[in-house]
Amino acid sequence: MRLPAIAVLATASLALGGAASTLATCGPFTDTANDAFCPAVLEIFTLGITTGTTPTTFSPGDNVTRLQMATFLSRTVDGVLKRASPRVISGQFWTPNNAAGVTTLAGANPIGVQSDGADVWTANSGNHTVSRVRASDGKILETWTGAIFPWDVSLARGRVVLTGSGGALYQIDPREAAGSVTTVSTALGVLTYGIAFDGSRYWTVSNTGSVSIVTPASSPPWTVTTVTTGFSSPRGVLYDGANTWVTEDIGKLHKLDSSGAILQTLTFSSGGGSPAFDGTNLWVPLGGDGLAVVRASSAALLATLTGNGLNSPFSAAFDGQRVLVTNFSGGSVSLWKAADMTAAGSFPIGSQPRGACSDGLNFWVTLHGVISPPGGLARF
Amino acid sequence: MKTHRARFRLLAAALPGAASLLLGVCGPFLDVSDAALCPFVVEAFTLGITTGTTATTYSPSDSVNRLQMAAFLSRTVDRSLQRVSRRAAMGRFWTPKNAVDLGLTTVGISPNNVRWDGKDLWIPDRTTSSVYRVRASDGRLLETWTGAPFANDAVIAIGKIFVDGYRAAPGYLSRIDPAAPAGAATVVASNLGAGADGIAFDGSRIWTANQGASVSIVTPGSSIPWTVTTVTLGAAPTGILFDGTAMWVTDYTNGNLLKLNGDGTLLQTIPVGAGAAFFTSDGANLWVPLNGGAATAVVRASNGAVLTTLTGNGQTFPNTAAFDGERILVTNADGNSVSLWRAADLTPLGWVPTGASTYPAGVCSDGINFWITFVSSGQLARF
CA A123, CA B97: separation in Å to the nearest integer? Predict the structure, then answer.
């Protein structure tokens, strides 16, 4: 970017209400005029986007190299994300350093977890229940029954829809009084695990080698189209706004078209847990204690991250800034800064952490190893 | 300031977590050797703000021209907004595609508008003179308030819900205390201008745009009735919005967007097109649906310039606009559909039918969903 050279002025700054430490012309900068551009310079100085070329110079007439520009833009994104986060607005700058407070949960062996914006819904595979927990205080609000081996949860269409690993799909109308779930299909494959919604249809994956596309109807059963071509051991599924992605236990990540046909496949040594999407990249937990970062638009592998406490990673979740991965064997979670893939440490959380979601403020992690009340739903 | 051209080196990446595919000196780039600034280059690459000058070069010492700068800044804003949205944190990257995918809640008979208080939605219903409170997280009807005459539109301010009453003459203003048990609203003024339609708050006073060629300004007081000042304006004031600086009003009949000062004096008249209706602000621009045709005008608030008049994208007598931080949604009441745009660059994102005989009218965002009132079917839809 080229800016016109600005004459050096030596008058005292009028911009900051006479702040004692900013005696130069424009904030701390003696070489930048207190003109129409000065407020913009002050803003990027205040935000930490620039530190100047020296503590007292901004060199306003210099060109910017691509290297410098990357620095400015990267700090711009970081500054915006930080300030817009509910965590900052509520003063929550800390990360739990020890096993997080585990809230009570009226179910055993919870796996899938999703936020509806106010409450968190968990699929309790061990005792066939679904819990609704208030995110603000962790109180159990409701327990729904009748879902056999519920595995994963989707929040869409104003409804809660769950997979049952026996091959069923269940629906809850969260406006109704808690009771029994409605079975909307029993035509899914055996060992149905993950679920995603694409704006009109649900996608579920069966670990025995199929992907089902389910179209909601006003009354059960819902229409199910099952695709098997190219699948052997699907586990996780995600919709990124354009395409559906499926992970497989044998270490594959598939990008699908709207009919379920495979468009592209990435192969890993082993793999594929429940992935997360950050708006640009997919984060895919891998066997062999890895985490793949894949550009959604091109399916290019950006990096395979290792270390940072990864230990049988199972699920990934994104909160706007950070990616969290549950370590099933490690009893921990690992964090990364999503924007630059920087490791942000791992933290103990409890027995067999499995599912994860964000409500924007906190991550919520299910502890599958907990088999009896009070069960395991950890706020992180 | 120019740095020296980075020396070309082939080193394993020194990134945290030992990324296996990033084999360049800095991420995928072989020509970035500045260790202190490399993390920023990796971030710009990871975010998709830059793709490099080639797949393996970044050309760190090259200058950036204004055209390239525009592309980089645009991507920076886009990536920031996308990640800031609660939709991203909730993994909600889909948009409803069909009418049957809209979660519906029954609210009165002909609900015209909907407003969000940060947690719940408030829906005035003119036919029943009632106001409905619906929880945004699950769409459950929580409360029904009665006794708000001809309840038309609402503004949420000073911890209360203010509802105007649309009637030939006079217009009403009712107040609801959302902390109190649901019951009857309190009528605080019954001498608003005829046809009180849109409603807004300026920090101390409540304004209504009145179809009967006026705006009313109501000052909250300690005793009822509250003081009302009605100022003659235009032919058919319809929508009204305070953007932090000025009060803006649409004049439906004359097809104008009007900018007012604090006492209702007309500052600027901006011709936008016939049927200027219920508009919204995205922080920089005003989006004005033109109910007389099939277009939406986009007006720069700072100077009143019409940036463009958007046509197509399924618009059919567009009625009301709302903004969710990234996207603009416009309801097509007579078309039984809604149209979406990306606010930052005016890109159309398509339109979605809402179902026969729904007549989608009012709309607001809760940061995750848009909420739309169906006037003909008496429903609130989650989009």
Answer: 27
Name the 3-class secondary structure at B73.
helix
Residue of A nearest to B102 (CA): A157
Q: Which of B258, B176, B174 is nearest to B209 (CA)?
A: B258
Mind listing the pLDDT tens digit for each residue in A322-339? 999 999 999 999 999 999
The per-residue pLDDT for range B154-175, each reduced to its tens digit, is 999 999 999 999 998 999 999 9
Residue type, A192: T
Sorted by sequence, the CB contacts under 8 Å of residue B113 that are 6+ apart come out as B123, B124, B152, B153, B154, B320, B361, B362, B373
Q: What residue in A sits closest to B22 (Cα-Cα)?
A: A303
B134 touches chain A (CB under 8 A): no
Question: DSSP assignment, residue B169?
Answer: S
Structure tokens at B86: 């609660």
Cα gap A33→A73, rounded to integer Å: 24
Q: Do B91 and A73 touch (CB under 8 A)?
A: no
DSSP category for residue B181: P
Distance from CA of A374 to the nearest CA of B (A): 25
Query: Are A171 and A184 a contacting pair, CB within 8 Å?
Result: yes
- pTM for the whole thing? 0.91
Strands A262-267 and A252-256: antiparallel
Sheet-wide strand order for B280-281: B280-281, B285-290, B295-300, B306-311
The pair of structure tokens assigned to B121 is 């939605």
